[in-house]
Amino acid sequence: MLTRKFLTLIALLFITVTAIAAPLPTYEITIKDGVFSPSSIEVPAKQRFKIIIKNIGSGPAEFENLSMRVEKVLAAGVSSFVVIHPLKPGSYHFIDEFHLDMAGFTINVK
Fold first, then answer.
1. Using 50, 70 and 90 to split pLDDT, how confident is the model at 48?
2. Distances (CA, A) of 60 to 30, 77, 96
3. 49 or 8, which is more confident?
4. What average pLDDT does the chain have?
5. For residue 109, how many other CB atoms are within 10 A of its CB?
6. Which residues form the EfeO-type cupredoxin-like domain (predicted)?
7. What burial class does residue 84 get, using C-beta atoms within 10 Å of its C-beta: 0-12 exposed, 13-18 middle, 19+ buried?
8. What is the 3 state secondary structure string of the chain?
9. d(CA 20, CA 79)
10. For residue 78, what pLDDT band results from cuts at 50, 70 and 90?
11. What's the CA gap between 12 and 4, in Å, rounded?
12. How confident is the model at residue 1, as a pLDDT?
């Protein structure tokens, strides 16, 4: 009986460690003078993920969604990342505040 409980505990510990060590799904985008490429991505609902942002433009860029409290300012030629918390299904729009006249970027959560 004690052996069965011990093996169950070891199995649960292994599952937990494996879940923690799993890498985040990662998406890469670029911003060039206010133009996002790709202009949208599709991600699964209720799952954390990482977005790597590269500013390949000639000036600064800002990856921003105020309602989600996500903001990343990048100088020209700089890369960085943001980790997005699990989202409900829907569309989440981001802008480059230095180029408000451009279309921006959308995360579509399914």
1. very high
2. 12, 9, 9
3. 49
4. 89
5. 19
6. 6-105
7. buried
8. CHHHHHHHHHHHHHHHHHHHHCCCCEEEEEEECCEEECCEEEECCCCCEEEEEEECCCCCEEEEECCCCEEEEECCCCEEEEEECCCCCEEEEEEECCCCCCCCEEEEEC
9. 25
10. very high
11. 12
12. 64
Pick the closest to residue 81 from 24, 41, 10, 2 (CA basis). Answer: 24
Rounded CA-CA distance 81/67 in Å is 18
Residues 6+ apart with CB under 8 A from 108: 40, 41, 42, 43, 90, 91
Q: What is the pLDDT of residue 68?
A: 94
Cα gap 107→110, rounded to integer Å: 10
> Within a 13 Å sphere around the CA of 25, how many CA atoms are in the beta-carbon half?
12
Residue tagged 């918390």 (tokens): 85
pLDDT, residue 7, reads: 63
